[in-house]
Amino acid sequence: MTIRYVESSRLPTPWGTFEMHGFEDSANNKEHVVLTMGDVRGEEPVLARIHSECLTGDALFSLRCDCGAQLQAAMHKIAIAGRGVIFYLRQEGRGIGLLNKIRAYKLQDCGADTVEANEALGFGADMRDYSILKPMIEQLQIQKIRLMTNNPRKVKAMKDIGLPVVERIAHQTGRNPHNAKYLQTKKGKLGHILSDEADEES
Ligand SMILES: Nc1nc2c(ncn2[C@@H]2O[C@H](COP(=O)(O)OP(=O)(O)OP(=O)(O)O)[C@@H](O)[C@H]2O)c(=O)[nH]1
Ligand SMILES: [Zn+2]
């Protein structure tokens, strides 16, 4: 495995102080971050979010997707629980990278949906590889998780790397008029479990 643990530090946030753990992947020079709160080791399942980088949603307040709202909601829920983990994976644009995501957005501006846009650019609908989580989980001694996600692929991916998901917790927030079609495509083509009801409070 090409993932190496580098260092940890404190990360104060509006929701509380996390511990931030840095990892590097020598295969592609990607730098990944894991935030933990409380003692995540041991038998007791850990409240967890596996979050793929979305520069536009997480840092630039984009309303094209639900990423920023989901990240904040996860930090909030973990702070309330006092214990949890967020894997912040540098798999921008479902693994196609930022510039290709901009290309995909341009195609979506012209009428394609998020899956059609990826495919028109020669990519699969979702190019992410979750096996990189295995060394991170081992380093942090996490044994079981309760996963905040609407994406059944993430649950299956954890099974594939041998990390029990004892519960999937729906994580639906951030719906707005700009991302309605995107969320509909996630549900219809990518298999996300999304209700048409209003979002949960976060
Ligand atoms: N290629 C592409 N990527 C997008 C688009 N919109 C958002 N993304 C990326 O999709 C990814 C969303 O990842 P996550 O927040 O982990 O969410 P998810 O797999 O949708 O599942 P949840 O756990 O239910 O949120 C991020 O990497 C975003 O950059 C798009 O239109 N095209
Ligand atoms: Zn996003």
Automatic annotation (TrEMBL):
Domain GTP cyclohydrolase II: 8-169
InterPro entries: GTP_cyclohydro_II, RibA, RibA-like_sf
Chain's role: Catalyzes the conversion of GTP to 2,5-diamino-6-ribosylamino-4(3H)-pyrimidinone 5'-phosphate (DARP), formate and pyrophosphate.
Cofactor mode of binding and number, as noted: Binds 1 zinc ion per subunit.
EC primary class: hydrolase
Keywords annotated in UniProt: GTP-binding, Hydrolase, Metal-binding, Nucleotide-binding, Riboflavin biosynthesis, Zinc
Family: Belongs to the GTP cyclohydrolase II family.
Binding-site residues, Zn(2+): 54, 65, 67
Pfam short name (any one): GTP_cyclohydro2
GO molecular function: GTP cyclohydrolase II activity
UniProt cross-references to NCBIfam families, sorted A to Z: PRK00393.1, ribA
Positions of the catalytic residues: 126 (proton acceptor), 128 (nucleophile)
Gene3D superfamilies documented for this protein: GTP cyclohydrolase II (3.40.50.10990)
Enzyme Commission number(s): 3.5.4.25
Annotated PANTHER family: 3,4-DIHYDROXY-2-BUTANONE 4-PHOSPHATE SYNTHASE (PTHR21327:SF18), GTP CYCLOHYDROLASE II-RELATED (PTHR21327)
HAMAP family: RibA
Catalytically driven reaction(s): GTP + 4 H2O = 2,5-diamino-6-hydroxy-4-(5-phosphoribosylamino)-pyrimidine + formate + 2 phosphate + 3 H(+)
Name this protein carries in UniProt: GTP cyclohydrolase-2
Name of encoding gene: ribA
Reported cofactor(s): Zn(2+)
Pathway(s) the chain acts in: Cofactor biosynthesis; riboflavin biosynthesis; 5-amino-6-(D-ribitylamino)uracil from GTP: step 1/4
Chain residues that bind GTP: 49-53, 70, 92-94, 114, 149, 154
